[in-house]
Sequence to fold (218 residues):
Amino acid sequence: MAEAPVSLQFREAVTETEIRACHPVMAQLRPHLDESAFLQQVQRQRMQGYRLVAGLDAAEQVIVVAGYVLCEKLAWGRHLYVDDLVTAADRRSSGAGAAMLDWLRARALEAGCAALHLDSGVQRIDAHRFYDRVVFERSALHFSLDLPANPAPDPAAEPVPERIGGIRRQDHLQQVLERRLPGAVSGDEGEGEGEGEEDDDDFLDPSHEGGLDTDFDP
Fold:
């Protein structure tokens, strides 16, 4: 993974002031949460084991944030799950995202974890290329089901497309898993694959990285 910028420091956001300082960057990933709702949500989730981490530059400005939990499951054993990961739009391609993953990996090793895990929407091709380069493996498809107690879907909402880029949605899911999509590269194939695409190591979609995404569902 890319080395951290010399002045980048990582600090867990614990106090109200520290959590609020993360909001401008996190809002690029979770735009449905205003500052007050974000603060309350983080405080609730911290009681369930959630941790929010800020990457700060030399001017003490938050330029990358991540949320994670330490978990244990029958399938994966002890692991670190990345709920949220986003770099400030004006600081992408600076190595901050890769540096944050380095920090999370070190935290996972320190906590005795066997692996890092995250989910990424199937349509996030540039993000997939980033994860391929930092040696993540495509190991599963994510499925979800809304329960009756949840709010009913907005009838005016745009329907989930049946096709993605001319490919049937279910076929697209399988192609993503098998790395058969144009532009998807594995960690040993180098950078810059895919003519005409921006090669942005820190591309993190404004609606999701490292958590659940409504667009992910078939």
Notes: The first helix runs from residue 16 to 26. The mean pLDDT is 78. Strands lie at 9-12, 51-56, 62-73, 77-87, 115-117, 163-164, 167-168. Helices lie at 16-26, 35-46, 96-110, 125-133, 169-177.
